[in-house]
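Hey, quick one: can you model this chain's 3D structure?
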Amino acid sequence: MTDLSEGQAREARATPLTARLRLPGLNLWGLLVPALALAALEAAVAFGFVPARLMPPPSAILETFRELYDQGLVTHLAVSTARVLAGYALGVALAVPIGAIVGLNRRAESLLDPTFQALRAIPGLAWVPLLLLWLGIDEGPKVTLIAIGSFFPVYLGLIAGIRNVDRKLVEVGEMYGLGPVALVRRIFLPAALPSLFTGLRQGLSLAWMCLVAAELIAATQGIGYLLTDGREVSRPDIVIAAILMLALLGKLSDTLLKRLERRALHWRDSFETRLG
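Sure thing. Here's the predicted structure for all 276 residues.
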């Protein structure tokens, strides 16, 4: 029993501190910087270094969250999340087949890629007037704007992943008689998955960023509406609360997608597996 206890103690001492501070589904290191920033802000406002009317302390923002909850905060969160998921799904559904075609075919790249690169340079807000004219003020322009923002990172990530596939793998597949469809399914897709997931995560982040611009289009519900409402009534606490909700929802969705990435790419012998 003593030997076992000593062995466990040695193992605990040998375990990296980062691993010991990581609980299932929760990285305590990741909470350190936000906690210190909130504590510093609370102290700065309390001692008068920062005016509370411009930067409310975390305690006041917590009260704002309670106020917003009584006024239907859950509905605002649900509406914004539904818009992001719908727009993101539409953008991914378009980006994956188009990116695969462009990545696998030089003629398709010459035909389509210049147009997409030009469209990628257009800011999201520049689409708002045109979408209003085309689609009105309902959900259509909001979902479309989010889809446009999430399309390009996925499109570029998939093309980069396909173009970086080892040529020798393709030649081996052709030697074994794999046809075009089999090559895509058994060689190109698995090899391009890391870049594709990078594009998916970037596209999801842009989807949340485009949400604010989308909800400027005659929205009466959603986090973007709360941002606008807080500005109009000169309530910085509401604005900060809405920003924090965007940050938390973005982080939560990215964490879920990252877990899906690790599960889909568990076969990789990469440096990340060494990090744990």
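One thing worth noting: DSSP finds 13 helices and two strands in the chain.
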